[in-house]
Write a structure and sequence with these properties.
Layout: E1 11-14, H1 16-33, E2 39-45, H2 49-58, E3 63-71, E4 84-87, E5 97-105, H3 109-119, E6 125-133, E7 146-150, E8 156-157, E9 173-175
Parallel strand pairs: 2-3, 2-5, 5-6, 6-7
Antiparallel strand pairs: 1-9, 3-4, 8-9
Helix pairs in contact: 1-2
């Protein structure tokens, strides 16, 4: 596989200012919805790590953090539809208010897997927040309770989201060009 295009050749979708404004709104909404309660925020690694850090600071409640790692993409632009648990939780979730923090809900295979797994642990409440929602690719009927932005059927990178390890550190969110167009682009490692 050729290296993906440099980020200067990606299509800007959301600026860091737009993202931060929406994250602050989402934090305020979650704070109102769970007023007087504590939360366990579960970040889905690695894509949601930056979003989780910003969202946790925007929530004005007592929050604890945990992380779970699953795999469904590998180095492809499309989910393989199978989900594998790579890293489990450190905290028990029984009788806890749990908020799963996702970077993107695409086919919802990962979200469906996580909901089933976490509900078996009997949390007091289980909700899902996602920064990006791509309903056009949904294969499962599961959806997030709080959504930052709805996006078209494009592969998003930046702000924690990657393609084969590239682009996580970008402060904006970009859409990747289709892989078939890469041959016409200047290919190389992200500067």
């Amino acid at each position: 596989m050729a290296d993906p295009p440099p980020h200067s050749q990606l299509e800007l979708f959301l600026t860091s200012d737009q993202i931060q404004q929406r994250v602050q709104e989402m934090g305020a909404e979650i704070s109102r919805d769970f007023a007087g309660q504590s939360l366990l925020l579960i970040g889905v690694l690695t894509g949601a790590s930056i979003f989780l850090a910003d969202l946790a600071r925007a929530i004005s409640l007592n929050c604890d953090l945990d992380f779970i790692s699953v795999a469904s993409y590998g180095t492809q632009q499309h989910s393989r539809g199978e989900v594998r648990l790579l890293r489990g939780l450190e905290h028990p979730v029984e009788n806890m208010n749990v908020l799963v923090v996702e970077d993107i809900v695409d086919t919802a295979a990962t979200l469906s897997y996580l909901r089933t797994m976490l509900l078996a642990e009997r949390p007091a409440l289980l909700k899902v927040v996602t920064l990006l929602d791509k309903p056009s690719r949904r294969l499962q009927t599961v959806t997030a309770d709080t959504i930052g932005f709805t996006i078209p059927n494009r592969f998003a990178v930046g702000y924690g989201m990657d393609f084969a390890g590239y682009y996580r550190n970008l402060p904006n969110i970009y859409c990747m060009p289709p892989a078939s167009n890469w041959s016409s682009l200047h290919l190389g490692k992200t500067p």
